[in-house]
From TrEMBL:
<dbReference type="Pfam" id="PF01385">
    <property type="entry name" value="OrfB_IS605"/>
</dbReference>
<keyword id="KW-0815">Transposition</keyword>
<dbReference type="InterPro" id="IPR021027">
    <property type="entry name" value="Transposase_put_HTH"/>
</dbReference>
<dbReference type="InterPro" id="IPR010095">
    <property type="entry name" value="Cas12f1-like_TNB"/>
</dbReference>
<keyword id="KW-0862">Zinc</keyword>
<protein>
    <submittedName>
        <fullName>RNA-guided endonuclease InsQ/TnpB family protein</fullName>
    </submittedName>
</protein>
<dbReference type="InterPro" id="IPR001959">
    <property type="entry name" value="Transposase"/>
</dbReference>
<keyword id="KW-0540">Nuclease</keyword>
<keyword id="KW-0238">DNA-binding</keyword>
<dbReference type="Pfam" id="PF07282">
    <property type="entry name" value="Cas12f1-like_TNB"/>
</dbReference>
<keyword id="KW-0255">Endonuclease</keyword>
<dbReference type="GO" id="GO:0004519">
    <property type="term" value="F:endonuclease activity"/>
</dbReference>
<feature type="domain" description="Cas12f1-like TNB">
    <location>
        <begin position="341"/>
        <end position="411"/>
    </location>
</feature>
<keyword id="KW-0479">Metal-binding</keyword>
<keyword id="KW-0233">DNA recombination</keyword>
<dbReference type="Pfam" id="PF12323">
    <property type="entry name" value="HTH_OrfB_IS605"/>
</dbReference>
<feature type="domain" description="Probable transposase IS891/IS1136/IS1341">
    <location>
        <begin position="218"/>
        <end position="328"/>
    </location>
</feature>
Length: 419
């Protein structure tokens, strides 16, 4: 008996662009809308149950309604479909319904574990489309791989998806396609972004590692200091400049958004829906394309830097930065959002696991204010703390001259080694 996806030792994710036909686009939209409806319906049932349970009087009508909703939420796949018969249409993927229910319950589990994540909220109708489906294997087709499931590759340019049929794609990495016989597909997500591009995200699993094993002889540890002046400074003194991708197109984006606002205002004055206003939708695509290009350039930069750090060092130490808290500083919010620290740290984390390296985060407390040589902390013994304007400083205790970011990176590495 073959292993399940969870039992496989190695997992990987890949996102490829697909090119559906007009009919396939219609089916994607219908499944995306149905997925959002089921999620919101479950959320609405839970909210109503919460309010009804506040009624302390034993009112028979209320008790009956609570029992009805509880039965419906226990088996939403049939409970919601029986009330809303249109969900039984053959256009809808049954795995889409199951994954939507699973995602809603996962959102509640996340709230119970991490309360700051918040309770599930209603999903708004947006330009973007998304739904999840699952892959199924049968014993008669042999050992599960990328070529014999219900969602399978037909060749290097075509994939078969449940309800959609044959869809053309591009962008599958050659190393993955070459190993298609010993890789299996799990959950798949079909999505459309704001620019109208369609993508297929695949969860892959295998008994063998997805990347080549790196040289284990590397004995190199490095600490990195993330800042907005430069993107990062490492403990050896190397500096990576901040590309500031958003700032480079800020004027162009603002001009396009002003034009979009004027078209929205005109459509509203003429009592036309924005979804039916062709000029508005045309300009919306212009704005979305500018934002997509910036996001792609930033992600490419972060991937290159994170992969280089992980491949060349057996230990990488960084500060545990909470971008959500840092963004409360309105003077630096735009610069902090532009560099993408949180995304960068997440990339380092999963790539360290992928390449069998070590990535450690430490508290950023006093990494900038502490002298690396003598451990003197600025702000003590009648000294004033360093400000953001102080890029270089001399320790009043030992007299060593420090470059602010290099000193912080060295302190970060020391904390990581101690940890």
């Amino acid at each position: 008996m073959s292993k399940t996806m969870a039992q496989l030792p190695y997992h990987y994710g890949v996102k490829i662009r697909i090119f559906p036909s007009t009919e396939q686009k219609r089916l994607i939209k219908r499944n995306s809308d149905a997925s959002r409806f089921i999620y919101n319906e479950m959320n609405g049932i839970n909210r109503e149950l919460y309010l009804l349970r506040q009624v302390k009087l034993p009112i028979k009508l209320v008790q009956q309604r609570i029992q009805t909703l509880e039965n419906r939420i226990k088996s939403p796949a049939t409970g919601i479909s029986n009330i809303h018969g249109w969900l039984n249409n053959p256009d809808y993927d049954s795995d889409m319904k199951a994954n939507t229910i699973k995602n809603y319950r996962s959102a509640w589990n996340l709230f119970r574990k991490v309360h700051r994540s918040g309770t599930p909220v209603f999903h708004k109708r947006r330009t973007e489309q998304r739904y999840q489906t699952s892959n199924h294997y049968t014993a008669k087709r042999g050992e599960p791989n990328m070529m014999n499931g219900s969602l399978r590759l037909l060749d290097c340019k075509h994939v078969r998806i449940a309800k959609l049929g044959r869809v053309r794609f591009k962008g599958m990495p050659q190393n993955l396609y070459a190993r298609r016989d010993n890789i299996r597909i799990g959950t798949a997500t079909i999505s459309m972004d704001a620019t109208g591009r369609y993508y297929l995200s695949l969860q892959l699993g295998s008994e063998q590692p997805f990347v080549k094993k790196l040289n284990a002889a590397i004995q190199s540890s490095i600490g990195i200091d993330l800042n907005t002046d430069n993107f990062l400074t490492d403990s050896t003194g190397n500096i990576v400049a901040n590309p500031r991708y958003y700032r480079s197109i800020r004027g162009k984006l603002a001009k396009a958004q002003r034009k979009l606002s004027r078209r929205a205002l005109r459509a509203k004055k003429e009592h036309r829906s924005l979804r039916d206003a062709k000029n508005y939708q045309k300009q919306r695509l212009v704005v979305a394309n500018i934002q997509r290009k910036v996001a792609n350039r930033r992600n490419n930069f972060l991937h290159l830097i994170s992969t280089t750090l992980i491949k060349n060092h057996d230990l990488v130490v960084a500060e545990e930065l909470r971008s959500k808290n840092l963004l409360r500083n309105h003077a630096l919010a735009m610069s902090i959002a532009d560099v993408g620290w949180r995304t960068f740290l997440e990339m380092l984390s999963y790539k360290a696991n992928l390449y069998d390296r070590q990535f450690v985060t430490v508290s950023p407390r006093n990494t900038t204010q502490t002298c690396y040589a003598c451990s003197f902390v600025m702000g003590t013994r009648n000294t004033s703390k360093l400000t953001l304007a102080d890029r270089e400083w001399t320790c009043p205790n030992c007299g060593i001259h420090h470059i602010r970011d290099l000193n912080a990176a060295q302190n970060t590495l020391a904390k990581g080694l101690a940890k």
